[in-house]
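Collaborator request, handled under Task 6.
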Amino acid sequence: MNEKDIVKLKSRLPKKPGIMGKENYFNSAVLIPFILIKGEFHLLFERRASGIRQGSEICFPGGEFDPAIDKNFRDTAVRETFEEIGVRKNKIKIIGQLDTLIGPTGVTVEPFIGILDLVGISKIAIDKTEVEKVFTVPFSFFEKTLPDKYSVRLQVSPVEVDDKGNETKTFPADELNLPSRYTKPWLGKKHSIFVYKTSGEVIWGITAKLIQELVSLTTKSKI
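Structure tokens returned to the collaborator:
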């Protein structure tokens, strides 16, 4: 490498650094929907239909970025909201975006905050193939209620085991003459999991983390 190569390298560096290898993740966007009910803002949630991926869990509207349809992640959040609960773009006022969340299981989430121009939720037309029901919780509940906090630790394994117990080596640490600890499963970093219990529902995981981040921001604004 010479000075010309360095100049070329400099010209090709990202102007705005992002997430390296993002294309290898499940890249998604969600809408965090606020709705005004009797003078108080609520968060709107979905219970996912039981027969789909992560069925019966509580979440915000959202889904995978589709480059064939979406110009950006904001489009994804708005499109998925319409597909899942029938709220059209002209009824959604986007007021901002949280930082990208990178989940421990290989997912990235671009969270957008929006206000729904709706009078209650009784006329929301949900897609029953994706959504079992919708419900709301006053945001003040989350401001006043600390979530339960747990932790998990993911395991990295250099082998895959099929349903019959057969092992397939996917990372030949021994052949690469790497330290012996990499020839068997090793533990990764601990990850915190937040859990809110409300209205007979358990809100946890990424959804609860997004709520916790919102609460943190609103609390700072009140100091």
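The cover message to the collaborator said: "The longest strand covers residues 186-198. The helical segments are 3-12, 73-85, 139-144, 205-222. Please let us know whether this matches your experimental observations."
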